Each structure stands twice: as structure tokens, then as C-alpha cells.
Structure to design on (261 residues):
């Protein structure tokens, strides 16, 4: 196993793994740089003879109101979180395709699909990861590669940067990283057949998240006034469908059209 971090944490994690009888080596390359990500993948292949599992979880966060955010602050978070994930998996993908096998676990966040203030740069980066993962899941499906997403809740060094003191204390008490790692290991198993799925994992709870589509309101001559009158139909979640891909979405849209007004 290769453990990547730009600081001392990688060495500390490797030491703990090795003490428990595992085999791990640290790589301190910066994965926000494509060359650094390639170094991580090369290290895994050179030192361990192959590459079968990729866990893409590098991330940084800080609290900032959008009104106070500038390009540099946004760019820094995107480079580590979004581009870092792209760089690592982009370097690994040819190896996984060549051997027609791989297990990829990407780390997003519920902030990508729920409303959370003061982290718009972080939320945007995690939304990018989610979109990347869904597309890769489709590309990997016929090549023995599964790509799944974990949205973890864990108190880590990164989480300690959250500005809300109450939330920080609650996370430290309830959300040990040891309650997230089993879900990651589960998705990395050779026997895993889940692909393109999102799992919330926190405090001992593992739950599937999904995209749902309501039946909606149909009108071939749609106007703003129509929407004002039929908001309830647009928003009504009764009888929604779980959408796995664009083909299913198109089919659902056709089936849910029970008649134009």
C-alpha cells in the first residue's frame, strides 16, 4: 500500500500499518500537480508490483463567506480536491484498463448536494468529484472497474479547520475515522459489484444516497404562469424514480408523461 500526504501524516500512517503486520510505504508527492500524482501511482507499481485499488481522498477545507472569497482561495481548494482526484485517477486509469480490473473509491461530501454555508469552494470541488465519478463508473463498467463515492463524516485534521466550534466538538466525539474505513474497504473488495453509487458514511452509519426524479408537470406550451399554478406537481416527491444513468432518465421522462396539458 502507498499512503500519500504532503506532510508527516503519511509516514505516521505507514508506521501504524506496518506495526499491525501490513505493508505500506509513504509518498509525499503533491497530487494537485499531475507529476506528483503520477509519482504516487508509479510508486505503487514499482514497490508493490501492481495497482488494483485507488482511494482518492485528498482534500482541504476552510470556512469563508463567498463575498470574501477570491480566485486564489477558490483555485487552491479546487486544485487539491477536484484536480487532485483527476490527476491520481488519470494516472492510474491506463493501468486499470490494461489489466481489465480495478476498484476506485472517490471521496466527495454531502456538501455537494445539500445546503451548507461558508464552504462554496469546497462544495464545488466535491460536486466536481461526484460528476467525475459517475462518468468514470460508466466508462469502467465494461472493463472490470468499479467506481464508487463515499461521503464521509469523520473528525480529521482537515475537519478541525471547520469554523463552527459546536460542530467541531460533535464531530470529534461521534465521528471517528475508524467508522468510515470499513465502508471504503468494502467497496474495494474484489467481490464488490456496486458501481456508480454514493454512500454516506459517518458515526457507524452507512446509507446509500441517490438522485431522484419526480413525475413533474408536463405542458407542451409551458409558461411561467403554468409553473406558478402547478408548483406542487413539480415538487411532489410521491412516486419518484431513482435515476442511475441518462438512458434511465430519458425513459423515466417518457413514462412519467401521462398526458400533455
Amino acid at each position: 500500500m502507498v499512503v500519500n500526504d504532503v506532510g508527516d501524516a503519511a509516514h505516521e500512517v505507514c508506521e501504524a500499518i506496518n506495526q499491525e503486520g501490513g505493508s505500506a510505504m509513504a509518498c509525499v508527492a503533491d497530487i494537485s500537480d499531475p507529476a506528483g500524482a503520477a509519482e504516487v501511482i508509479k510508486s505503487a507499481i514499482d514497490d508493490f508490483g501492481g495497482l488494483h485499488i485507488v482511494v482518492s481522498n485528498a482534500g482541504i477545507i476552510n470556512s469563508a463567506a463567498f463575498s470574501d472569497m477570491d480566485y486564489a482561495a477558490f483555485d487552491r481548494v479546487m486544485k487539491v480536491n477536484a484536480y487532485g482526484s483527476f490527476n491520481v485517477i488519470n494516472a492510474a486509469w491506463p493501468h486499470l484498463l490494461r489489466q481489465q480490473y480495478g476498484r476506485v473509491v472517490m471521496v466527495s461530501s454531502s456538501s455537494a448536494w445539500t445546503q451548507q454555508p461558508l464552504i462554496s469552494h469546497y462544495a464545488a470541488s466535491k460536486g466536481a468529484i461526484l460528476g467525475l465519478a459517475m462518468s468514470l463508473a460508466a466508462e469502467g463498467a465494461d472493463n472490470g472497474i468499479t467506481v464508487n463515492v463515499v461521503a464521509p463524516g469523520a473528525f480529521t485534521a482537515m475537519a478541525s479547520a471547520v469554523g463552527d466550534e459546536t460542530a467541531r466538538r460533535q464531530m470529534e466525539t461521534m465521528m471517528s475515522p475508524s467508522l468510515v474505513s470499513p465502508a471504503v474497504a468494502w467497496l474495494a473488495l474484489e467481490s464488490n459489484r456496486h458501481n456508480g453509487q454514493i454512500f454516506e458514511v459517518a458515526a457507524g452509519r452507512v446509507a446509500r444516497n441517490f438522485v431522484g426524479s419526480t413525475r413533474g408537470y408536463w405542458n407542451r406550451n409551458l409558461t411561467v404562469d403554468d409553473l406558478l399554478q402547478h408548483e406542487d406537481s413539480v415538487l411532489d416527491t410521491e412516486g419518484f424514480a431513482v435515476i442511475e444513468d441518462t438512458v434511465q432518465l430519458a425513459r423515466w421522462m417518457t413514462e412519467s408523461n401521462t398526458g400533455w396539458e
User: Anything to note?
Assistant: The longest helix spans residues 71-99. The chain is about 45% helix and 15% strand. Strands lie at 2-4, 25-27, 53-56, 102-107, 145-153, 198-202, 205-209, 211-213, 241-243. The mean pLDDT is 92.
